From TrEMBL:
Pfam families: DcaP. Keywords: Signal. It comes from Phocaeicola coprophilus DSM 18228 = JCM 13818. InterPro entries: DcaP (IPR045748). Residues 1-20 form the signal peptide. This is Outer membrane protein.
Length: 414
């Protein structure tokens, strides 16, 4: 036992010595303890056991015709408490160096209360240009996101993802150009769960972009003033759903790819205590950004089972208004419409592919003091599910289901 204490003391001494040698570095530690209490009137599409809420699930009748998804649920969690450190380092030539590492306790899958990496990157800043390498917000999330208590931050209307990337920014007067190459880590594309030809079961996997050998790309331009951000961007992704196909007892190597081009426009205006922000996204196969969509099968080779695909298109728009300082009310509205495919498809793969449209309205009130935020939020989400679809996977008729959600949040920031 004495040896263990001596070893621990030696390690602490070595760490202290190493810290003392890090001349030119400064560190800013920060974090928050956050508790979220929520209640839903219906079963929903969600992750983290309901903390990350998306939209109400369709009716699921039992043997007597009763809707199994017409069931209330709720819980209290502190999983989104987090800690982080911002690092300012010495100059590298003419570049200012900095870094960030941030973690929370959200875990992944069904493993919660475990450390999860949120941000981890370094940044080189030459003044008019900057290069970031590491994991941070996906460019489609960007610098314009709604101010709400729900941890989904507006998803599925707002793209939500943190992703490994190489990002270059160039700033000239009031204009900022952003160009990024993006990979996937925790937020993944949806694709086939089986190599068997014609199967439409789905799963999330890193293999779809890893086997592609091509990252996602984003290019955008912003006009920036002290009170205003206005801009637009274009995003391209290309994944390989499968590298082999099983037909009967035979396995074949296949070369499959689905490529999607998306576009977005955003606006954020702040003046004293007033906030107005909005974003509109025309998306194709953006399942890796916590939204709905996917792609459809357009043809199948009868001998090898090799398939061709076309992406499904969605349109999503949200608006957020807030006013105040100590007492700060806010409103959020989101609308999403599934637009189907550009050509006929035999089957579809993705998330929410049976949705026709979504409508969300949220009202909240927060009380803000130094280091504290207390708030309550009510959200109404109406989902239209397709009853029949065209050959291009667009709903021809639909029915609705609705969920009422209440969230109460307490945050202590340090």
């Amino acid at each position: 036992m004495k040896k263990k204490y001596l070893l621990l003391a030696a390690l602490v001494g070595m760490s202290a010595g190493a810290m003392a040698q890090k001349k030119g570095f400064s560190y800013k530690f920060y974090g928050q303890v956050r508790a979220d209490l929520f209640y839903n009137t219906r079963t929903n599409s969600e992750t983290v056991d309901g903390l990350f809420y998306m939209y109400p699930l369709d009716k699921l009748p039992d043997a007597d015709g009763n809707d199994l998804n017409d069931q209330g649920n709720g819980n209290l969690y502190a999983l989104y408490s987090r800690v982080g450190v911002d690092v300012a380092g010495p100059m590298l030539g003419k570049a200012r160096t900095s870094a960030k590492v941030e973690v929370d306790f959200r875990g992944s899958g069904t493993s919660y209360s475990l450390f999860r990496l949120r941000h981890a990157y370094f940044n080189l800043d030459w003044g008019t240009s900057a290069l970031l390498v590491g994991q941070t917000w996906h460019p489609l999330y960007g610098d314009v996101a709604p101010e709400i208590l729900n941890l989904n931050m507006g998803a599925p209307f707002q793209p939500f993802s943190r992703a490994p990337q190489v990002r270059y920014r160039f700033t000239r007067k009031h204009f900022q150009l952003t160009a990024s190459a993006i990979w996937q880590s925790q937020y993944l594309s949806v694709g086939p769960a089986s190599d068997k030809a014609g199967e439409a079961s789905t799963s999330k996997s890193q293999n779809f972009i890893k086997n592609s050998c091509v990252p996602e790309f984003y290019v955008g331009m912003d006009y920036r003033r002290p009170e205003l951000i206005a801009g637009a961007g274009v995003h391209v992704s290309s994944i390989r759903p499968r590298t082999k196909s099983v037909v009967g007892s035979d396995t074949y190597k296949v070369d499959e790819r689905v490529t999607g081009v998306s576009a977005e426009a955003h606006l954020k205006f702040t003046h004293e205590r007033f906030l107005l922000s909005a974003k509109s996204v025309l998306g194709t196969n953006l399942t890796q950004t916590s939204t709905v969509g996917g792609y459809g099968i357009t043809s199948v080779d009868p001998r090898t089972g090799e398939q061709t695909y076309t992406p499904l298109r969605t349109s999503a728009t949200w608006l957020n208004v807030a006013y105040g300082k100590t007492w700060r009310p806010a409103l959020f509205f989101g609308y999403l419409k599934s637009l189907g495919a550009s050509t006929e498809v035999s089957d579809v793969l993705g998330t929410g592919t049976n949705l026709d449209q979504l409508l969300n309205a949220t009202a909240e009130l927060t009380y803000n003091r130094s280091n504290w935020k207390l708030g309550a939020e009510y959200s109404l989400c109406n989902a239209w599910y397709g009853d029949e679809f065209s050959a291009k996977a667009k709903a021809l008729s639909s029915h609705t289901v609705m969920n009422h959600r209440v969230v109460m949040t307490a945050i202590y920031q340090f």
